[in-house]
Amino acid sequence: MRNVKIIFNALQSLSFSKIMRLLRLTLSHPLFSIMGLYATLKSFSLAQKHFPKTHSNNGEGNAFRHALWTCLILMYCCKISSPRKALDYCKKMTDMHEELFPNKPLETKMDLHNNQVGMDYFMELLTGIHRQFFETSFFVDELKNKTKAAKVLKSLDDDFPGSLVYLEN
């Protein structure tokens, strides 16, 4: 219930033009949007469980949450459509999130990077597993391992391909 309240409060903070952008994405892909919302709630819940102290700030748990979020969006959307369409929607949705709820530049770079790590990880797994058989458990352990090896992002010039990144507090 707490996760729903967080989402509701975030939506209340949007301007009219941002709400219209969100509606265009949602109405053009209603089933994907439902799957995306469910993935959002599930990723918050799992991040809270595994990283209760750092999932809601810019720490390791936030890196885990963003990568898991994109994996879950892709997993759910791939069950009802093609991987290509799911990936396109996932990228639009997660990029739009960063535009609608802007952060400082380094935080935005971190979130976009971790989103991409999650998308890349899902697409890598897709070659060996039929998309209908994916489960959440396929991602959690490996993303926890990636979180243990996460790198500290200190500048906009830093580049850590394939690794999760976080900011030191």
From TrEMBL:
Taxonomy, superkingdom: Bacteria
All residue ranges annotated as the DUF6973 domain in the record: 24-151
Annotated InterPro entries: DUF6973
Name of the protein in question: DUF6973 domain-containing protein
